Amino acid sequence: MGTAGNGGRRVIRALDRRQVPEEVTLMALGLAVGLAAGLGAVAFRWAVAATAEVVTRTAGAVPLPLLGGIVLVLAPALGGLAVGLIGRYVAPEAQGGGIPEVMEAVALRGGRIRRRVALAKTAASALSLGSGGSAGTEGPIAHIGAGIGSSLGRLFGLSDERVQNLVACGAAGGIAATFNAPIAGVLFSLEVILGEFSARYLGTVVVSSVTAAAVASLFLGSSPAFAVPAYTPAGTGELPLYALLGLLSAPVAAGLSRGMGRAGDAFARLQGPKWLRPALGGLAVGLIGLALPQALGVGYGTIEAALQGAFGPALMLALLVGKLVATVLTLGSGGSGGIFAPCLYLGAMLGGLFGAAVNALWPAATAPVGAYALVGMAAVFAGAARTPVMAVVIVFEMTGDYRMVLPLLLATMVGTLVSQRLDADSIYATALARRGVRLHQGRDLDLLEGITVAEAMNHRVSGAQTDWPLPQLWEALLASGQHALPVMDATGRLCGIVTARDLQAAAESGAEQPLTAAEVATAHVLVASPDEPVSEALRRMGGRDVGQLPVVDADRGGLLLGLLSREDIIRAYNRATLERQERTAGFPLTRLRHLPGATVHVLTVEKGSRAAGRTPAELALPEGCLLAHVMRDGASLIPRGDLRLMPEDQVMAVCGPGTADAVAGVFAGRAD
């Protein structure tokens, strides 16, 4: 169990005295999280609407239309500036989509999310989306709900597993309240946030999701998120068309994911303060809004219009491209908002455009345009998030129409399978991988699965040319210190590999003519690709009992890039292990691990210890010991002489020889 707050401790003791079953306590906490998540969703939706109303009224109050247009262009930039400042001075987690941040907290930090994040995320996302930023409300609302669940779990001193459970409850409540879709909230939380369907999580997540949806419906209404006409497939002969739509959805999902990554790289290369980047992205989004105002903001109204078949093909094509670019700029520059709604928007436009085409070709044998827009929504989201079942369910719940079940299932499965061929990871996992956090279905990957061959291999390779004679080969092999020597042609393309055994056999063959490297080398060798996981290369090495693999670029004719040895893999594994420890502890351990004669310890200030409530200057630590860093609620603090240490603080202590035990005693729960 973690350290509970004073109020939480009293409640825990009262429950223990009455011997209340743990399941009842967890259900009650899930109910509380759902209630808070529902209220938070309502408050957030109102905040977004209020911000949008201020922008609209300001633009309308300007006497000249041109000046009103300038206001609409500048509004996303000002919203982006606010997001950047909140991220810089309040909480960096306020930027981004929200869902990846929750996944990271669950996988790496035991579900712990800083308490200030909920308010910071509310303010940042409301300003970003209300001013015209192109993103969704569901990510921020899920992040807000997850933050509430994390805070409640920490208040009661729950274990990491229980805190993660409450975080999943909050995320499910956020999704359920956003779309009035409690079943989809449950599936999303289990499949994406926790990464597993487990009975021990299901009950509390269901309670939270249903509660949040009920609370939101009291204030926002209980009707489906989108009013959609009753669509029915024209017949089974139409199903191949829906499969083709699923196929087309995969490049759109991949384009959104890759576009966000490239935009992030482009903005990262810009000179100047980091907090200005969302403002620059917002300015570009505002310029798009001059030509396509429907591409700004969340876009629920535009999605509903597409589902009703209100747009022509030319406008849907323009909105597909415009929304894609606007979303890439908003989130790639560091804006705040979710990815969910943009996926639905892009899917509706793609499906509507496809439906218009097939309607023109076979008007009597196909469903209306809106039916294809409906299926496109699910297909693009399924391809991006890799959650086909959840995508189908949420479309059902958002529209209240279950008659399109076969086209939906077919398109989402095709879209998911093709998307997996285009991109190995979901859009959420890709966003985390760009920060060095590699997850799979909400869980931390095995370290070797998260390291690519390019990251681990030795780029400095001694190789031989195909025309080298045996004496030169012997000399080069001995000088390299390698087990084998790759043989290359004049262009650097791998032609084979030569070992000491090959050279010995050649020397004993009694050949009349001098042999060259090309003649003695083994031509067919196992190789590795630079972008494959090290785990795959290691399995290949173990299967053939070889100590190293040449790394080649198949797209460039087998160009030799380097060598991957077992020693390289061990070094990469150790490096990745240290990086994982840094992320978990929040401390830059890599900078201190080589201090001669010193050891680095991460200690928790326990309640009742000699360190609790005192400053470093008052601790009288042993000579040769230094407090280097303090983490409090996820915030990094410098342990100056006047910083008062608090229970639950994590402190990094650099201890000289023989001082570690004495220092640990200072932070332990008993003063002695």
- Could you say which structural class the secondary elements and strand pairing correspond to? alpha+beta
Question: What portion of residues is helical?
Answer: 55-70%
CATH class designation of the largest domain:
Mainly Alpha
Report the mean per-residue pLDDT as an integer: 81
Notes on the structure:
- The protein is an alpha+beta fold and 672 residues long.
- The chain has four domains: 215 residues, Orthogonal Bundle (Clc chloride channel), CATH 1.10.3080.10; 212 residues, Clc chloride channel (Orthogonal Bundle); 119 residues, CBS-domain (Roll), CATH 3.10.580; 82 residues, 2-Layer Sandwich (Alpha-Beta Plaits).
- The longest helix has 40 residues.
- The relative contact order is 0.09.
Keywords:
CBS-domain, 4-stranded antiparallel beta sheet, 3-stranded mixed beta sheet, 25 helices, 11 strands, 8% strand, globular
Write the layout of secondary structure elements.
Elements: H1 6-17, H2 22-61, H3 65-89, H4 99-108, H5 117-130, H6 138-155, H7 160-179, H8 182-194, H9 199-220, H10 239-268, H11 277-291, H12 300-307, H13 313-332, H14 340-361, H15 369-385, H16 388-399, H17 405-422, H18 427-433, E1 439-440, E2 443-444, H19 453-456, E3 464-465, H20 470-480, E4 484-488, E5 494-499, H21 500-507, H22 517-520, H23 534-544, E6 548-553, E7 559-565, H24 566-585, E8 599-604, E9 625-632, E10 635-637, E11 650-655, H25 660-667
Parallel strand pairs: 3-4
Antiparallel strand pairs: 1-2, 4-5, 6-7, 8-11, 9-10, 9-11
